[in-house]
Amino acid sequence: MDKKILDIRSLKKYYGKGENLTRAADGISFYVLPGEFVGIMGPSGSGKTTLLNCIASLLRPTEGEIFLEGTNIAAFNEKKQMEYRGKKIGYLFQDFKLLDNLTGRENILMPAAIHGLNLKESEKRIRRLAGELGLVQILDKYPAQMSGGERQRIAAARALMLNPSVILADEPTGALDSKNARALLEELKKLNTEQKRTILMVTHNPDAASFCSRILILKDGVIFHELRRQEKESRQEFYGRITDVMAQLGGGGANVL
Fold it and tell me: What distance in Å separates the CA atoms of residue 165 and residue 197, rounded to the nearest whole number?
C-alpha cells in the first residue's frame, strides 16, 4: 500500500459540557494517500469545517491523533506548528482572506516572506503559479479591483506558494458564481492530476464534489458513508451517485449503498 500522507485516528472535538455538549467530531478515522482529491460532505453541523480546522491545527482536538507524513502534529512546538501551517498545509478559504492593502502579487508572496524564502526562488514560483492559474494580468491589482474568481485564484496561488504537502479547501467555491466556481474546480483538478497535489476539500455542492476521486460524507460528527469514483465512471455519473446519497442522508435513511 502507498504511504499515507494524512492519517486521522479517532478524532473527537467536543464543545460545551453536560446538556450543552456538542459533539462536532465524534470519532472520525480515515487516511489520505499522496495525490488523492478527497471531498468532505454533509449537512450543516455535521463536523466538516471542524475536521478541516483540526487538520490545519487551527483547533486542538478533544481526543484522537492527526499524522502528516507519519508525524503526529500534536508533538509540534510553536515553531514547528508555524512551519506546519505555512509549509506543509495550504489553506484555501471560502472568503479568500486577502489583505486589501496588498496587490495580488504581494498577497501571494506573503507566506514566502513570513517563512524566509529567498527572493529569487519566490519570483520563480510566482511566475510559475501566475502562468498556471492565469494571474499574469492581475498580479498588480488590489483585491477591490478583482472579480470574485480572480480573488479566489490569487488565494489559491498564495496557498500553493510554499509547495505544501496537502491543500485544504473549505467551501472554495461558496462565494463564486457558477462560471468562476467551475473554473476554480477545473484548476484544482488540474493541479491534482498533472502535479499530483493532494487536496482535501469541504463542500456542500454535489457538482463540486464530483471533481473529487473519493468523498467522505459526514453526519452528526461521524463518517456516514464513503464514495469512490470508479475508473471508467464519468463525472456526471459520479454526480448522480453523490446526489442519491445526499438525498438519502437528508431523509435520515440507513446506509444501504
Answer: 7
Task: Quote the distance between the C-alpha of residue 62 and its chain's center.
Answer: 22
Identify whether the C-beta of residue 180 lies closer than 8 Å to the C-beta of residue 96.
no
Backbone angles phi, psi at 128, to 5 degrees: -65, -45
Give the C-alpha separation, 134 to 153, whole Å: 8
105: left (phi over 0), alpha (psi -120 to 50) or beta: alpha
> Look-up: residue for cell 520563480?
124
Q: What is the DSSP letter of 83?
A: H
Instruction: For residue range 50-89, list pLDDT tens digits in order.
Output: 999 999 998 999 999 999 999 999 988 888 888 898 889 9
Q: Give, for 221, the enclosing helix (H) or strand (E).
A: none
Q: Estimate to the nearest angstrom the gap between the alpha carbon of 130 and the chain centroid.
A: 20
Are the C-beta atoms of 63 and 236 separated by less than 8 Å?
no
pLDDT in tens, 127-182: 988 888 889 999 999 999 999 889 988 998 999 888 898 999 999 888 888 888 88
Q: Which grid coordinates are listed for 118?
A: 529567498
66 within 8 A of 84, measured Cβ to Cβ: no
- C-alpha dihedral (136, 138, 142, 146), degrees to nearest 10: -150
| pTM of the predicted model as reported, rounded to 2 decimal places | 0.87
User: How far apart (Å, rounded) are the C-alpha atoms in residues 75 and 83?
Assistant: 13
Integer Cα distance of 143 and 154 in angstroms: 9
